[in-house]
Amino acid sequence: MKPEHIKEISLEDLKLYTCNFSNDNLIGNFQFGKVFRGKINGDHHVTVKVWMPQTLYTCFPGDNEIRLQAELIILTETRVKLHPNLPKLIGYCGQGQLAVVYDLNPIDTLQNFILRDDFTWLQRIKVALQLACLLQILHYPPPSSDQYLVRNISPAHIVLDKDYNLVLYDFGMFTGGSLPEVDKENPGRRHLHGCIGYIDGYLSWTDKWFPEMDVFSFGVILIGLIAKKVFIVEDHSALIGLDLHSLVDWWAIKEYERRKSVSGENASLVHQTLEADGDFEYADGVEVTKLAMECLEPSARDRILIDVVVEDLLKLHVVRDTFSRWALSRL
Predict the structure, then answer these.
(1) Quick one: CA dihedral 192, 196, 200, 203, positive or negative?
(2) pTM surpassing 0.70?
(3) Is residue 103 within 8 Å of 7, Cβ to Cβ?
(4) CATH number of the domain that 207 lies in?
(5) pLDDT of 3
(6) Sheet order of strands, 44-51 included
(7) pLDDT digits (tens, 9 = 90+) for 200-217
(8) What's the rounded Cα separation, in Å, for the pair 134 and 201?
(9) 13 shares its domain with 137
(10) Are residues 153 and 300 in the same domain?
């Protein structure tokens, strides 16, 4: 059941907001559908997320209805709806088309930003820190709340605004918190193992989920941010004969070992164009690379915890220098 105070929006209004779901307004695909830019009353920018069957991920009858109900629960929980890196819910549509409308005006998805040359080193570290802090809040809530696990972290599920603040906008595999045990209620969900290319390929098949699995996904994204790498697959045909070294984590493990054989503990996976950035320091590149590799440890028990990730990111020169400049500007 939906919370009574959430606005219900008609399919006709959704079409009006998005110019009939025009491709010109398409932001991108997520695991279970598409997201569009929209406008309310001609000048209020919003984001419309629409659930629809995808060719890559199996969707059983009733799955998306459960996801919609779960999202309404999550985004109306006090500690969630006030978080700056989660979307603000305007309303939902449950008739004719399953959709939600966010008070959100993104520039693009993180998946698209990662490859851009104008996405700076500082902006990339800012995104990494915000994502780590968000996971820290979800994994280690206050005593009165329960832990959330995301389970399908992907750069396609993250958008950035004009100030390069991130917003995580998909909750289709969230578990814990205020949610019922939907995996038990709907066994069809058990076939889902997160987003291909960003999931711990070993542990996800055990049907047992741990915070360390979200940490693995974070590590893949962190590698992507510093090495300008993404993994994109549109349909099952792309998986036929897939070279595992095209996976970001597989590439990182092999390439890191190769570079360590040359540079020892000073090995870095930072892309050469980012090394030329004015805010980049090689020591930061080494530390971020080590941090990402600790997230990708094959054994979950050997992986770094997300609160330690946050601590280590805060120690980077680029973060401390930026904070110092900000503090001086406030004097």
Answers:
(1) positive
(2) yes
(3) no
(4) 1.10.510.10
(5) 58
(6) 7-8, 89-93, 99-102, 44-51, 33-40, 26-30
(7) 877 766 667 889 999 999
(8) 23
(9) no
(10) yes
